[in-house]
Structure formats: structure tokens, C-alpha cells
Amino acid sequence: MINSEILVEEKMDLKESLKKYFGFDQFKGAQENVIQNVLSGKNTFVIMPTGGGKSLCYQLPALISKGTAIIVSPLIALMKNQVDSIRNVSDDESVAHFLNSSLSKTEIAKVKKDIRDGVTKMLYVAPESLTKQENIDFLISVEVSFFAIDEAHCISEWGHDFRPEYRRLREIFERISDVPIVALTATATPKVQYDIQKNLNMLDAVVFKSSFNRDNLYYEIRPKREVEKQIVKYIKNNAGKSGIIYCLSRKKVEEFAELLQVNGINALPYHAGLDSASRARHQDMFLMEEIDVIVATIAFGMGIDKPDVRYVIHHDIPKSIESYYQETGRAGRDGGEGECIAFYSYKDIEKLEKFLQDKPVSEKEIGKQLLGEMVSYAETSMCRRKFILHYFGEEFDEKGCNLFCDNCRNPKERKEGSEYVNLLLNAIVQLNESQKAKHYCSFLSGNVTSDIKSYQHNKLSMFGAGKDKDEHFWNAVIRQVTVAGLIQKDIESYGIIKLTETGRKQLENPSPFMLIKERDFSNTDDDDDPIISGGSKGGAFDEILYDILLDLRKSLSKQRNIPPFVIFQEPSLKDMCFHYPTSLEELTNIQGVGSGKAMRYGEPFVALIAKYVAENNIERPQDMVIKSLINKSGLKVQLIQNIDRKLPLEDIGRSQGKTLTEVIDEIEGIVASGTRVNIKYYLDDILDSENQDEIYDYFSEAETDNIIEAYHEFDGLYTEEELRLMRIKFMSEMAN
């Protein structure tokens, strides 16, 4: 531990310094205590939620200390943003610099001169820059006040943004200077916290842990249906407010930003694939409010410290609760409103699982566990705030949510469920506390999986003891019992469930337990890409209107003495209940309704529908038309022609600036729409006929066309591309 105090340039009361440099009269939360600890020369660990004022905890000590503070930051964008903000509080541009790969040799020389001259108080460096010997040699030669590690969760393999180069920081610090370390993060579970301290050899650090509760943020999860339409509508209803939209891939970011633009929304993309000049320009335009919306990748965290972001929308679900918490934490940093809406479909989880396939075993298992927690959060019916805070090791009474999550605002019914809780706890005991959640769900519901069979758990007395309920139900019980503290997931063994002391007491002396009915997310869009297909489907079928239209048709048929189907057939009535036509012109767009029939019978129908729409405040699909992106049918025709010419798929991709994966995506879309393509020539080059037959037979008998299941069925013998291409051949021949 460092015992000597950090040398301070001028003795000044901390509050005076705060006022002088930042213009604030009071510190926020634990800031003052943290700063005192840093200045007294002690290692310091700060866990403070996004928006809690972490940066000031090292910026103020750096400004008033002798020498230069070295701040490790993982993102060039974040460094630029923080350096700009520090320069704004100083009359000297050289007070803060960053050192990373974006600088020229001349710029690097200027940075080093300013540090030698003692005018630079803060140097932001990427961990990669810090590992370069020339930079280490330079920093050894200058006075360093202390080291600060921003986004310290990157050190831990259990953190959501693990960066291997962060694991070397302690070794490099020791080579440079024996000064205190300040580690800061917005998201750290107890496991990650310990991992960070152990790796940095700072188990002696004074830990300052603020509450993770951001009480001004509203959390909501929506089923992923008509997501483009919902987001465009939301942004237009919140016109002029700043927002961030997160998407899973760079391609989706580009397309979605373009979709927002063609719908009259000021939006720009932001991801690691853009050149640094474009990223910097887009970031500055967002900060200066020249645009309202930034569309960004989940994988590329943005270093945008903008206090008045009013909403964060996840088009795709993130890979962990830590990622989700950090990204939603960019909303409402000024304490004002912040809406956090995420669209959830299990298909997104499957995509994220696919990314883990080629990772080392431990990384894959950690990734799966983090994803499992994300699924639990998305599907739960309990207070979302309570769930998040429990995840970060914090107790919370859901009454304090103040209806600031969708589950508290629209509560699901609760029922006494101690019999199910005790059944679960007994099953855990019978299986010697040796399995993960999925196994217990299969075991209780009586599902003979390959794991159940190999362990011979189907021969145990409790197998199928809860078969009156499905696995979805048992998953819900596990989630709720975990948060209640009756069981816990052992992190070291990748999520194996153990009973807690409270759980054992429940078994010995059962007490009532209220279970909340879980939400159902099975009803999501099947279409992967409504953006490309040119718009989304109509709204939900309106059964109430359908009954009213049936009555109207019946009364008109009696008046005119004709059978009801002569007026309008049932498919036409059903189509009206999706599209709500309120004029005769709109009625002619309904299935089975020509202009003659509309003129003859339509008037009372459109009048009734118009009245129904007004009285029930219905939003009709045609009132919220989303302009789609340019029609790509020309490229599709070109793709089919190139396949007919038997060109290698890689060559076809190169000619259109696409990867093989993107070409396969396109072909899948073509086949799904009913067009037959013949890629036998390409398959013959990559798979012998015996292998082709084996995969073809699998798809002939499989209950699902899921590629992940096929991959597991063949134990990884075939690549994802090979399986997808064989699925294309199968669907083309059998379905089209």
C-alpha cells in the first residue's frame, strides 16, 4: 500500500477547488470522501452508477496534485470527450491530453513536451498504448501523481467488456511508478469487484460503493413485434429529445440510421467500423444537438457524456445485464426523465449464443451464464429495478420503484406458490445441488433431455414431479426464488444452483410464497429484417370489431334478403379488422373487395369502422406508415442470375461488396419468399455427397430448422455456413 500523501500543488479547501475548477458548490454522494482518500495516497476502488459523477473523483485530485495523472480508458471516443470537457474548465488547452493510435508523430511530440513542462495534469491512454515500451520509458522519466483505471470492469473475465490487455496493467504500473491506483466502474457484481481488486493487487483498497438505483429511469421490455414502426413512432412522439438506439450489428446500425433519416428523423450511425473522423463528427453533432438520435452498436460502447439523453432504446437485447445497465445509464444523467425501452425476442439470444461458439470453454460458459441472466431479466414479471439491484448485490424494496418499470406499472397476478417452491428446493437437494437452472426445469417438467438421460435422473423419484407445469413456469420459479434469496447461482461453477441458509429453513419449515405469473414473449416477429422487406405487417387482429362487423353484415343481409357472404366474405371482414378502412377508397385495398362491391355495400361498414376507431382511439397501420429503404430487388435479380451462371458465392459477394455471410443472408431471404435457387454446384465444391445427404436427411426429420440445434446435433462437424447452405437447398426443393 502507498503510505505517503500525494503532493498537492496549492493548499486549498476541496470545496474551493470544486468551485474554482468545476463551478459546483457541493460534492455529489461520496465524491468528497473518495477524493480525500486518493489525496491521502491510498488505493481507491469506486463503484458508482453511470451518471453518479465518477470522473470528478480522479479529475479534481489530478488538477490539484503535482505531476500528471495517468488515466487508462478503453475507448478513443471516451478519451476525446473527457479531454474536451476538462479543457473547457481550464484556460490552458494543455491541461489534458490523450495518447492513442489516432495521433500523428507531431501530435505525440507535443503531448510529451507538455507533460515534461508540467502543464498537463491528466493523460488519457488506451491500455494498448500503455504496453508500448517507448511510452513506458517516457512515463518513467516524468512525475506521475497516480493511476486511474476507468471502466475497470474490463479487467475481469466476468465483466461484460473483458479486455485481455487490462490484465497487464498492474505489471506496467509497477514498472512506471509506485503511486496509488484508483479503479472506477459503473457496473460490478460482487464477483467482478473481487476479481478487479485481486488482479490489480489492491485488496487493501478503500471501497466506495454507491447504490446502483437510478430512480429517475423507467425500465420497460417489449416483445419484438413491428419494432421499426414502434421505434419511429416513439421518436416522433418525443420529437426534439435526445436519444440513443442500440443495435446488434454494424449493418443494422447503418440500415436503421438510414431508415430513421428517410422518415424525417435527424439520426446518424456510430460504430467501430466508421473511420475516426466520421465517429468524432457524429459524436460532436449529437453533443451539439445538431442531430437528435445516435444509432450505435451494442458491442461498441460510446464515450458520450451527454447529461440530457431522454431515452435509450435497445433494438436488440444486450449480451449481459452489466451491458444493459451501463447502456441504459446513459439516459437521464442530469436527474431528469430517462426512458429505457428494450425489444426482446429469444432469437436475439440465439444469435448472441452463436457468437460464443468458437470461444474458449471458460469464456463460452461465462458468456452463456451472462446471457441466461439477461433472459431472466427480460422475461421476469417482478419489479425490474429489484431484479437489477439484486444482480449487483443490493437489497431493494419494490415499493421504492414508484411504478418506474413496466412490471410495477402493469402488475401480473400473484398466487400462493409455496408447494412449487418446495418442490424445486427438494429437487435441488435430490440432485445434490449439482445442476444448472435448465436441468432442474427439464427434470421437474419430466422432459427426458440427453443430459437427464446420461445422468439417469429420469429414474429418480422426483423426475416429472412438476409435469403439470412447463419449463417456462419452472424457470420463472427459479428466477423469483433466486431474488428472494432461497437459492443462489454459484458463479465459479458457471451457474450451478445451491440452496442458501434461507432456502434450507424454507424446506424445514415451509412458509407461504407468492409467485408472480410470468410474461409471455413467444409472440414476436418471425421476419428477421422488416427493414429490407419493405415495411411491416398490419396490426393485431381486432376480435371485438370482427363481432360487430358480423352483426352489421347479418342485419344488412336480412334487410336485403341475401345471404351474408354475398355482401362480404369472412376473409374480407377479417382483413378489415387488421387495417380499419374508414373510406371507400381504403376499402378497395381490402382482400376480396373491388370498387363495385365497395360502392354497393361499403358505406355502412366504413362509417361503423370510422366511429369505432374514433371511440377507441385506435392507431391504424396506415396512419403510421413507415417509409422503407430503397427496394433491393435489382440486386436480388442480379444475385439469382449470378447463381444461375454458377459463380462462386465469394465472388458474387465481392462484386457487391458483401461477405459470404451477407450473401447467404440474401439467398435465405430469396428462398423464404418462395423463389427457388440451385446452389448444388457450390455445395458440391465444399461437401461430398455423403455429407450432403446426411444434413439433408437431418432437415427432413428435424422438428425445427434452427441452425444452432443442427450444429449441436452434428457435434460441430459442419460449419454454420455449410449447415445454412444445406438448409437453403432443402427449403428450395421442398417448400418452393
**What's the total helix number?**
35
Quaternary organisation: single chain
User: Total number of β-strand segments?
Assistant: 17
Q: Can you tell me the CATH class of the largest domain?
A: Alpha Beta
Summarize the structure.
This protein has 35 helices and 17 strands. It is α/β, with parallel strands linked by helices and 736 residues long.
Key words describing this protein structure:
single chain, 736 residues, alpha/beta, Rossmann fold, Arc Repressor Mutant, subunit A, 5 domains, 7-stranded parallel sheet, 6-stranded parallel sheet, 35 helices, 11% strand, globular
What does this structure look like?
- With 736 residues, this protein is α/β, with parallel strands linked by helices.
- The chain folds into 5 domains: 14-209, P-loop containing nucleotide triphosphate hydrolases (Rossmann fold); 217-360, Rossmann fold (3-Layer(aba) Sandwich); 414-516, Winged helix-like DNA-binding domain superfamily/Winged helix DNA-binding domain (Arc Repressor Mutant, subunit A), CATH 1.10.10; 537-624, HRDC domain (DNA polymerase, domain 1); 633-735, Orthogonal Bundle (Arc Repressor Mutant, subunit A), CATH 1.10.10.1390.
- Helix content is 48%, strand content 11%.
- The chain is built from 35 helices and 17 strands.
- The strands form 4 sheets. The chain has a 7-stranded parallel sheet with strand order 3-4-2-5-6-1-7, sandwiched between helices. The protein has a 6-stranded parallel sheet with strand order 8-13-12-9-11-10, with helices on both faces. A two-stranded antiparallel sheet has the order 14-17.
- Helix 19 (437-445) packs across helix 21 (471-483) and helix 30 crosses helix 31.
- The chain is globular.
- The termini are far apart.
- Residues 526-538 have low confidence and may be disordered.
